[in-house]
Every structure is written in C-alpha cells, then in structure tokens.
Amino acid sequence: MRSSPKEEDIECISLEEQEHPKPLTRSVSKWFKRKSQSIFRQSTVSVGRKIPISTALPKPYVREDTKKPYISNRITTARYNLWNFLPKQLYAQFSKVANLYFLFVACLQMIPGWSTTGQFTTILPLSIFTVVAMGREGYDDYRRHRQDQSENNKGVEVLRSYHNNAEPVSGSADGQHTLERRSTRNIGVWQQTKWKDVTVGDFVRINANDWVPADLFLLSTSTDDGICYVETAALDGESNLKQKQAIKEIDTLIKESPDGISNLEGYLQAENPNMDLYNFDGYLQHNEERYPVSVNQILLRGTILRNTTSAVGMVIFSGEETKIRMNASKNIRTKAPSLQKLINKAVISVFIALIALSLTSTVLGAVWERGSIHRWYLTGPKRDLARSFFSFIILLNTLIPISLYVTMEIVKLVQAYFINNDLEMYYAETDTPAEARTCTINEELGQISYIFSDKTGTLTDNVMLFRKYSVGGMAYVHDNQKVISHRLNSISKLYSSELNKVAEDIRPIEEDTKVTHLSGSISSRPCNQKSSRQMIERLISDPNSHFGRQADMFLLAMALCHTVVPEVSPETGDVNYQSMSPDEHAIVNAVHELGYTCIDRNSKSVSVVPLQGGHPLVFKVLNIIEFSSHRKRMSVIYQFPDGQIVLLCKGADSVILERLANGESNPATASNTFESKTQHMSIREEYLYSKAIEHVHQFASDGLRTLAYGHRYLDQDEYNVWSAIYSEACTSLVERQTKIEEAAELIEKNLSLTGITAIEDKLQEGVPETMEKMQMAGIRLWMLTGDKLETAINIGHSCRLIRDTSTVIILDPKQGSLTNQVQSALSNVTTNKGHSVVVIDGSTLALVEKDPVLLDSFLDLGVVSSAVICCRVSPSQKALVVRSIRRKIGSAVTLAIGDGGNDIAMIQEAHVGIGIAGREGLQAARSSDYSIARFRFLQRLLLVHGRWCYVRISKFVLGTFYKCVTFYLTQFFFQAFTGFSGTSLYEQWTLSLYNTLFSALPVLVLGMFEKDLNAETLLRFPSLYRTGQNNEMFNLRIFWIWMVNGVIQSVWITYIPLITQGAFSKGDVEDSPQLYFLGVIVYTAVVLVVTIKLSLLESHNWTWITAFATVGTIGLWFVWQLVFSVVYKPQDATNGYEVYGVFQAMISHPDFWGALVLVVVAALVPRVALIVLKRSFWPTEVDKFQEWEKDEKRITKMQETATSTNQYPQQRRNLFTKLNPWANSLRGRASKLNKARGWLPSRLSAQSDNQKYEDYALTESSTHNRH
C-alpha cells in the first residue's frame, strides 16, 4: 500500500495523469481537488498517542504528554480494599436519610436519663441491619477481588528480544520457543507472562481459543491472508464471529523470516483511549510508508480468538484504558421506583405525626406536673421540657420502621427469583430464561402506562428470508428454491451450470398469484410478479438484451456488494456463508440459488462463479466504504475482470434513489450512435425508475424490508483522484469518520439503478395477541422502527397495533403546516374518542424536535392517541421520544423494549428497560433491567409478575407501617397512666426485638407470596392490570386508612388489659399487675392481632407458608418468653421490670387469657365485619374475580364474552386502499407520485409520460411473456 500523499502531491498526480485530459475529466479533477483542499487539510495538532514499534527499546514506554509510564495491564473491578472498606461503607450506609435518622435517635438514647426504653433498643437493630448490608456488600466485593486476581494472573506469550551475538541455531528448551536465527540484528523469544505484567508496546501472541489480554494492534496471523476471527460475545453480546485483517505488507514482512517480527521498526499513531467499540482512528508509519489503521486491525480485550491458529499483536491500550473497562465504568441514569415517591411522602407524614405526638406528650406532661404539685409522694427535680420532648421522640421513634428498607430488599430479591425461574417465560429453543437484572424496580412492572417497542428482532424474528425483487421494470417472487446448480469438476477445476427442474410439489408462481408474508398475517394484492425461474430463463435465452444486461449486473451486485465470508467444504463443495448481517446473509444465499455463487473472499479480491459456470470470475477489491447508521448505505469499488472500475452501492431505498442520475444513460446499456435510440433509452430509464418506486411501495405494503442497489462506472483518472482523497481521510486522526463520509459523498452520486430487493422478517409467535392484551390493559403502545413508513404501517396492522376501525393520522410536512396538522388531529382525536393511531417518520420528527411548542403539541397528541408509530427513526430519536414522554407525564411509568445496540439509549431512558436476548446479540439485554427471549413473554412479565410485585410491595409497605403504628402507639396511650413521664411499657430487650423477630415473618410472607388473583385470571382479563396504573393498592388515602385502623386497634390493645385487670381473678391488692406483667399482656396482644390481620385477613393466598408464618411467629413469642423469663436473673431487673419467672406464672393466670381473648375480638371482629359487608354490598373488581375464580364455568363464559367483544377480523383490507388517499392511484400514476417526491425530472408532463410508459410497458411485457 502506498503512503498517503500530501496536498501538493495530489496536485502533481492530477497534472501528470491529466496531461491530455478530456474536458469532462479535467473539470471533475479540478472539482475534486478543490473539495479535497477544503475538506481534508492536514491538522498540525498532535492527536492521540505515538507508540514505538520495536522489540529493542526498553519497557515500559513513557507517555509523551505526561512523561510518565503507561498504566499497567492490571484491572480492578473491586470497589474497596482493607483500608477503605469501613469508612466508605459507613459513609454509604449513613448517607441514607432513614439510617441517619435512626442514628440520631440512637445517639439521643445514649444520653443518660433521656431514654426510658433503654440505651440499645435502636442501636441494636440499626447495627444488625447495617452490618447485614455491609456484609453483603463486602462479600460481593470479595468475589470481585477473586475474579480480578484470577484474570490478572492469566498467562500469555510475550516476545522478548535479545541482540544476536551467536551463530545461527534453532531449537527450543524449557517451554520457551526460540525463533530460528539467521544473520539478523535481534532474536525473539516467546515467554509466558502474566496479564498484569503486559505493558503498552509489548508484542503478544494469542493462540486459538485464547482470550485477548489487552487492546492489540493486529500485526500478523497464522493464515496466509492475515485474517483472523474473534468472538465478541463478552464485549457486545453478539454471538457471530467478527473478521479482523492485518495490514498485508506488515503481515508479509513478518512471515518472510522467523526473526522478521523482532526487527520490525516504526511507530503507531493511535487515538486516545475511549469507549467506542466500533471505531478506531490511527495510522502505522513504517519505512516512510503510512498505512491507515481502523477497527478492522484492532483486537479488543474481552474477545476470544476463534478459527485461527494464532495471531500476533502489539499492545496499544492496557488495563483500565482498554475499551471494555472504559465501557464498564460508564454512568447511566439511576432508576428508582415511582412507588418510592409515595413511600417517602408516607414517611414524611408519619414523621410529622411523630413530632406532633411528642409535642402533645410534652405539653400534657407539663400540665400533669403542674397539677400534681401538692402530691407529697412525688419528689425529684422539675421536668426539663427539652429533655421530655426528646425522650418522647426516642420512645416513639420506631413509628417509622427501621427494618423497612432492608426487608423490602429481601422481598424484592425473592420476587426476582420467581421471575428468573418462571418456566412459562423460558425459551427452550435458545435455552434462554427470563432474567431480572435488577430487583429495585420490580413494582414498576405492574404500573406501566406506555410501552415503546422496537420492531426488527423485537416484534419480528430477525430471521431474514429473501422474498421479492425488482429488476428491469419487473417484480419477481423468490420461492427459496435453487434455480441454478453449480458443480465443480475435480479434474478440470471448472464449474458446470445446470438449470434445476421444477419439483412436482412446487408450482411456478404466476402473475395472478397471491403471496402471503409475515406468517400469513398479510396478503398482498394480485400484481404483475413472476417467479425467479422465469427471470433466469429469460436471462439465459437473451443475455445481451437490455433486460439481460441489467439483470446480470443486478445479480453481480448482490453477489459482490457485501462483507459476507464464504466457507467452501473441501469434501462436498457446499458453500456456507458467515455474515454479521442477517440481511446480507439472506441476499447472498438467494443469489447463490439464482446462479451467482460467491466462493472466495479475501482482502484484495472476491471470486464469483457466474450463471453460465466455467472458471470463477475474480473481482479485485479497490475500496470498501463501510455501512453506518448515519449513511444508511455501503459501497464497494471493484475492478472487473475486463478492467472496468465499477462502484456498487447498496442501502435504504430513500438514500439510493435520491443519488440516481437524472436522465443519464447506463454505460452497460448505452447505444453508440442513433439519436432515436438515445431518446428511447432516456424514456426507458425513467420508466425503470417509476416501476422501481412502485415496486418499493408494493413490497413495503407487504411488510417487507427493502434495499436498493445502484452502480456507477468510473474512469481511471477520476478514480485515482478520488482514491487519494479517500486515502487521506482514512489516515486522518481528526474526525476520520466525518471525512470518510464526506469523501464517500464525492463518489456515491449519479448512480444507475440496478435493482430492488425485498426481505421478509417474520413476526414472532404471539405478538398480535400480546399487543392486543397490552391495549386491553390500558397500556398505550409506541412502535419505534427504522423501517420505511409503509412497512411500519403494515406491520402495525399485522401485530394488531392498528385495527380495522382505527383512524390513522399520518403527519407529513408535504401535506401542509405541521402545526395545523397536529392541532387538527388533536382536536379530532379528543372529540371522536375512537381508536386512533398517529404515524410520523424520522425526518418529520426532526422538524418537530426543533420547535418546542410543536413538540409539546405532538406529545399531547401522542398521549391521547391509542398508539403511535415512529418510522425511519435513529437511536437518538428513539431515546428522545421516550425521554420526552417520561418528562411530559411525570406520573406515568414508561417501558422500552428492544434487542439491538441501537435500542440501548431508549432502554436506559425509560423507567423500565426490557432487553430481548435475540439474534442481534445480548447488547440490549445486558443494558436492560429485565431480559426475556420473546416478545410474547411480556404479557406474563407485566400482567402476572408485574401486578403481583406491585400488590405485594404495596401490602408489604402498608403492613410494615401498620405493625409499627399498632405496637408503638401503645407506648403513647400508656403515658396517660404515667403522668406522661415517658415510662416505657416494655422491657428494653424485648422491645428491641419486635421488628426483627416478632413481626417480620408475616409481613415478609405477604410481600413474597401474596397472590390476590391467579395467573390464569390475570392473563384472561388484562383490564385487571389497571390496578397498578391507578395506584389503587397504595396511595396516601389507603395508607392513612391502614394507619387509623392501627391506631384504633392500638387503643383496644392498650386499655382493655388495663381495664380488665382483676376482672377474671379475686381482685386482691396482691393481684395488681407489675409493669412487666402488664407489658407482656399488651405485647402478646399486639403479636396476636398483627399476625392474624396480616397473615389471615389481608392475605388472599393461604398456603402452608402462610400457616407457618402465623404459627411460627406466635410460637416464637411464647418460646422467647419462656426462655427469657428463666435466663433473665433477678439482679438484672431495672426500672421495675421484674422478669424472672413471671411468664410461667402469667400463663396460668386467668387475667392473661381473658384479656387476650377480649383484645383479639375487639380489635379484629370489626375488621372482619367490614370486609364481609364491603364484599357483599360494595365489591371491587378484584373481589368479584376472587369469587368467580371459584366457579370455572363462569370465568370461561366471561372470557368468551371479552374475546368476542375485542376480536379482530381475520381478513384485513388492503393498506393502500384504506389508509392514504394519495396512495389509491399509486399503481396507475407512479410517475406523478415520483415527480412529487423529486425522483423524476420535472421537465416531463404527466400525461405524455404516462403514455410513453404505457407503450414501453406493453413492449416489455410482451417481450417478457415470449421468454
């Protein structure tokens, strides 16, 4: 490869090569020169890092900018070490407001004389919960340390160079492989080194199936052409192999002699470390030659060498500067559940109530003290108001449950376990289960209001089938049958060609055949479409006709314009294609069936067996301009076997068609002399354009993905000038991609239309039913896709996003003011209240983005519409749409679902991100919150697990606050009998264990296992999902209903034991209860009431787990008291709590059992009566279904009624006769539509054009029918 010329060199080359140029060539060259000077002027700024290529220089290398060595290759994913774990974790734990609040209360308790509940009742449970959280974090970090150590100590072969002072010998010893030495300056020895000891500039040898230890610049491989393959699944989730190509000159130089690599000299100018996995800018300088370096020459850490014996590379980025590590530390938006906002409001309201109760108790205590001034038996200092206030805060502090966040984490982990192990969401074909990658936002799954879905790979299978194509003004249907077979003669090395016979069970497709696509969901209208066999027969019979030449070029373009790598079996001769793109794989397989077989590909050429067989034709690859999402096309420049230079361009039809030459004739089909022939060719070209555009719309109406092909013949001078510009762009370190795209614009123009391909991407199983159920659940659906408008609308029909009764609103700036269209549509949708679908494309959305007022109006329209389809949108536009809706409706929960890397931004913007673990890899799945294998699993994930999680978390939070209010308010009500002195009713150790031992299990079981309705019922009746959308299970009104219930029960629990003391015994003075005796009765009553309410009254799903929680909690309380009353010695008694032997005496005391029976009846019977009345006279929808679940026949009847009400007709009307008025005349007036879109010269009149086209169409049709 030659070095990149400077600007003056470009001028010299142009002048030398154009000593006698043609007028057209001279003007083109001057124009190229001016563009090159303005676009590709050399930058004098040093960019990136300059890495010497030499084995003799000492390591480690020193950076030119900082004068410090490059960082080591040691990586650290652990967050802590022995010295900073404790301080960092203490800061992390007490940065939580709740923990800080309880730490403040614990500090108050430590002040002598302030706490009446003991000094450890808060610090003990706080310490337990904090230690548990820190221990879990420490264990996770310990595992990370182990993983880091394992990776850092892996072995790899590194080249160590020594000066050659010995005679030439060869050999090996002790596992170190010495290269054969000749008369060279240095010799190289491959030595085993740990990954952590590899440095920038080291030469590393990777063997087959080995991991790449750092980011490497590929120097050479064991293959003859310098190609190797790597698996990138651990990096980007894609399972298919990626091809990497060493620079040919360097690869050859290294292979010339065993010590060639030891004496390699030069330097690599590389970009600075960054997170971009798909681009790399740099160049290699060697012996005055400069070679561009792209991502095709880079092996990234985290990849595995496959299908290659070995590869040698030089380390360019190490350790934390490798791309995989830089991506690992990327910050994304932190997601928090929407329910958390309501919980925070509840906590604040309880805290306000706590302050109010403390103030009330302080004031009442002061009043009581003033009234008791003449009571001679009360002695001691006067009460301090501040001390009294803080004492009541200490006494009542646990009204805010200290265990809420830790236990909620446990509950969510169990919920995530159920999601991960649901066999109904397991996809056996790919062995992929559902996976909850976070458990923080489980309840959000039950509150979704908007779903934003990708199409390809998400709604469809991403299994591409080549279905139709257009060439020479005719549309053809490909039936996936091999039309031409090639066989290799092992002696002559020639390929024979044979036209296959039509199988008896396969009928050729005639003109009036209906072709069904998308798994039978769409039937196209009868149209003039013939079979592939008919096209090949015509091509064989008359290869030199206009049609024959164009069809031949089209098939060649399909066989050449791609990056597919063929693999030919030496035993059978069968060809297997490896491709990173499913579209390209389908196209190359189809053209192989049509008789053009790509059998070999390397960096310099592609070999194709032509239709007629014989020797393979070798096409020299001059340049490849790769596909990008911005360009939406790729181009390859070939030198054909006859010496002609041809540009082949493939891409989106909208991009290719706008680059077609207006009225220029095709060099392959141009006539030589006659003016009438030239005029006929001009009409023919315009006719072909018109038919191609008509076929594009027909294919799109069948839901097919279309690609257009164009080609252009280049003369040598024009190519040379452009090649210099392109070479300069490829070696630029400043905005290389931009300059490459600008260089491509110079050559990808004035194309001749080659043909159109149409590929089917089938809908996944269960997509229409899932879409229907989501809409019945009150979820609004947005489909965001890169497909063209007609394809997107047709997919909308097939997946039931659009109904037959839907009003479809297409926003098109060509139809008038966008503002007026949006306002009119908004008014109509608001007034009509029917099912409406808004359709907008990416270019229109870009105009909407620029006007904030218009964007706000569009969002209003999207909110009130039943569904929205955004087509031709980029990844950034997908993210914009999701972010705009999320900010527009703060109360709505959004969900984004996709399967590809272009969906990651959208997934991360939504409240809940769902990744499809599909054929585009695991990129989206790994960046998501939850991953599933198929779209249909979304209905179970949301309607079942989502609703269950929402109900469980809601009841868990309500139950947690309820049990705390019920228990700790007994302390407040008891103060009326103590002169509001702050005396605790409970012994301090027993008090501190309430949240951890005696009330945790019922509320945990409620949060983990509650099922208010069965999964079958929830799937049958999606409308039940609205419970979460409307916050019907948890809001401030429901919260305070539970709290008031707890307050009332707390009153009964406190006063009934006090009032009834002695009522069940003789009533002697000796029987007057001591403080601990009374506290145990109240405590026992709380345990009974709370446990029965949470486990039996509030739980609909009674199982053995519920019974275990009920019996276990109550039994544990009695066991604790029996043991504690024996262990607690009399000398340990403080503040009047006589514990020793008391409980054994209590359980034989009538007052104990009598008070318990009265409390339970008084506290729970009213609640039971209220539940019965409510379900009998004012039942909710859930209450009804809970009763109906007991009657299967009734449920079945209701399901049939619901299905018939929401059933969609099986046969759908044709898209273009129903949706767009302007499309009704598309078939008969294609040229008029084309002129409106700017695809035809405006100088032609519609009537004359149509007449010419009709005449030409008749001629072409009759010619085709003859063949």
From TrEMBL:
<feature type="binding site">
    <location>
        <position position="872"/>
    </location>
    <ligand>
        <name>ATP</name>
    </ligand>
</feature>
<feature type="domain" description="P-type ATPase C-terminal">
    <location>
        <begin position="925"/>
        <end position="1180"/>
    </location>
</feature>
<keyword id="KW-0067">ATP-binding</keyword>
<feature type="transmembrane region" description="Helical">
    <location>
        <begin position="1034"/>
        <end position="1055"/>
    </location>
</feature>
<dbReference type="GO" id="GO:0006892">
    <property type="term" value="P:post-Golgi vesicle-mediated transport"/>
</dbReference>
<dbReference type="InterPro" id="IPR001757">
    <property type="entry name" value="P_typ_ATPase"/>
</dbReference>
<protein>
    <recommendedName>
        <fullName>Phospholipid-transporting ATPase</fullName>
        <ecNumber>7.6.2.1</ecNumber>
    </recommendedName>
</protein>
<feature type="domain" description="P-type ATPase A">
    <location>
        <begin position="188"/>
        <end position="252"/>
    </location>
</feature>
<dbReference type="GO" id="GO:0140326">
    <property type="term" value="F:ATPase-coupled intramembrane lipid transporter activity"/>
</dbReference>
<dbReference type="Pfam" id="PF00122">
    <property type="entry name" value="E1-E2_ATPase"/>
</dbReference>
<feature type="binding site">
    <location>
        <position position="456"/>
    </location>
    <ligand>
        <name>ATP</name>
    </ligand>
</feature>
<keyword id="KW-0472">Membrane</keyword>
<feature type="binding site">
    <location>
        <position position="899"/>
    </location>
    <ligand>
        <name>Mg(2+)</name>
    </ligand>
</feature>
<feature type="binding site">
    <location>
        <position position="650"/>
    </location>
    <ligand>
        <name>ATP</name>
    </ligand>
</feature>
<feature type="transmembrane region" description="Helical">
    <location>
        <begin position="1152"/>
        <end position="1173"/>
    </location>
</feature>
<feature type="transmembrane region" description="Helical">
    <location>
        <begin position="1102"/>
        <end position="1120"/>
    </location>
</feature>
<dbReference type="GO" id="GO:0032456">
    <property type="term" value="P:endocytic recycling"/>
</dbReference>
<dbReference type="InterPro" id="IPR032630">
    <property type="entry name" value="P_typ_ATPase_c"/>
</dbReference>
<dbReference type="GO" id="GO:0045332">
    <property type="term" value="P:phospholipid translocation"/>
</dbReference>
<keyword id="KW-0812">Transmembrane</keyword>
<feature type="binding site">
    <location>
        <position position="584"/>
    </location>
    <ligand>
        <name>ATP</name>
    </ligand>
</feature>
<feature type="binding site">
    <location>
        <position position="627"/>
    </location>
    <ligand>
        <name>ATP</name>
    </ligand>
</feature>
<feature type="binding site">
    <location>
        <position position="454"/>
    </location>
    <ligand>
        <name>Mg(2+)</name>
    </ligand>
</feature>
<dbReference type="Pfam" id="PF16209">
    <property type="entry name" value="PhoLip_ATPase_N"/>
</dbReference>
<dbReference type="InterPro" id="IPR006539">
    <property type="entry name" value="P-type_ATPase_IV"/>
</dbReference>
<feature type="transmembrane region" description="Helical">
    <location>
        <begin position="342"/>
        <end position="368"/>
    </location>
</feature>
<feature type="binding site">
    <location>
        <position position="705"/>
    </location>
    <ligand>
        <name>ATP</name>
    </ligand>
</feature>
<feature type="binding site">
    <location>
        <position position="455"/>
    </location>
    <ligand>
        <name>ATP</name>
    </ligand>
</feature>
<dbReference type="InterPro" id="IPR032631">
    <property type="entry name" value="P-type_ATPase_N"/>
</dbReference>
<dbReference type="GO" id="GO:0005802">
    <property type="term" value="C:trans-Golgi network"/>
</dbReference>
<dbReference type="Pfam" id="PF16212">
    <property type="entry name" value="PhoLip_ATPase_C"/>
</dbReference>
<dbReference type="InterPro" id="IPR059000">
    <property type="entry name" value="ATPase_P-type_domA"/>
</dbReference>
<keyword id="KW-1133">Transmembrane helix</keyword>
<keyword id="KW-0460">Magnesium</keyword>
<feature type="active site" description="4-aspartylphosphate intermediate">
    <location>
        <position position="454"/>
    </location>
</feature>
<dbReference type="InterPro" id="IPR023298">
    <property type="entry name" value="ATPase_P-typ_TM_dom_sf"/>
</dbReference>
<feature type="binding site">
    <location>
        <position position="903"/>
    </location>
    <ligand>
        <name>Mg(2+)</name>
    </ligand>
</feature>
<feature type="transmembrane region" description="Helical">
    <location>
        <begin position="388"/>
        <end position="408"/>
    </location>
</feature>
<dbReference type="GO" id="GO:0000287">
    <property type="term" value="F:magnesium ion binding"/>
</dbReference>
<feature type="binding site">
    <location>
        <position position="785"/>
    </location>
    <ligand>
        <name>ATP</name>
    </ligand>
</feature>
<keyword id="KW-0547">Nucleotide-binding</keyword>
<dbReference type="InterPro" id="IPR008250">
    <property type="entry name" value="ATPase_P-typ_transduc_dom_A_sf"/>
</dbReference>
